[in-house]
Design goal:
Blueprint (H helix, E strand, L loop, with lengths): L1 H24 L6 H8 L3 H7 L3 H23 L6 H18 L1 H11 L9 H20 L9 H23 L4 H16 L8 H5 L12
Length: 217
């Protein structure tokens, strides 16, 4: 129905407007007036879809998680190996952070001490689990050492990625995020790779480059 379609379009416009304002100003400095101006909607339309600023911020985080999951799943679908999939997952998320305001805003909201916004802890733990899956398969394939502690390696990669992208955002607005992540992997991979794969660090790290946006809604 036309009314339902307009409601979906209005909600999407509000989320897009909110993501741009939250990304630029952070949660504490964002007002709903700024969001309605950015989205081109009335305050009544905003309150029809969202009860409060915290509710709106939670919806931005949820949309970021949905986009990131769908984008990354498509990005790694054709990976030639588990180690390659790990690099492509990093490349996908870095591309999202540098090109998708919704993703960058969701990450900013999740790392600010808000209290009112739903915790991202389950999503962060899911990210660790997904990374551990790539690492475990890379061990099984013989690319990574068979004595590698999979869980500790996965937590380290997720933590290192988070720190590197945060510093890139602060220093260059993510302009150098791919270069910095490649550097990170060139330091990390030699401690992960098995003797037979010891020469693959540069080749794998170079997979971390901008990716195309997949066809997702």
């Amino acid at each position: 129905m036309a009314q339902q379609r307009r409601a979906r379009e209005t909600r999407a416009a509000i989320l897009q407007g909110a993501s741009s304002v939250f990304l630029a100003r952070g949660y504490a400095e964002t007002s709903l007036d700024q969001v309605t101006d950015a989205a081109g909607v009335t305050k009544g339309a905003l309150y029809f879809h969202f009860r409060s600023k915290a509710d709106l911020a939670g919806a931005v985080v949820a949309e970021q998680q949905r986009l990131s999951r769908a984008w990354t799943e498509l990005a790694i679908a054709g990976a030639p190996s588990a180690a390659g999939a790990l690099m492509l997952a990093c490349a996908s998320f870095a591309t999202q952070l540098s090109t998708e305001p919704m993703v960058a805003a969701g990450l900013r909201l999740s790392t600010e001490s808000i209290g009112e916004v739903p915790s991202r802890a389950p999503a962060a733990l899911a990210w660790v689990d997904e990374t551990a899956g790539h690492v475990s398969r890379a061990v099984s394939e013989g690319t990574f050492r068979d004595d590698l502690d999979v869980d500790r390696a996965a937590r380290f990669v997720v933590g290192a990625f988070s720190g590197v992208q945060t510093f890139s955002a602060l220093s260059t607005g993510h302009a150098d995020v791919f270069e910095r992540l490649q550097d990170m992997m060139r330091f990390v991979l030699p401690s992960f790779l098995s003797p037979r794969s010891a020469g693959l660090a540069d080749e794998l790290a170079e997979l971390i480059r901008p990716t195309d946006r997949p066809p997702i809604d």
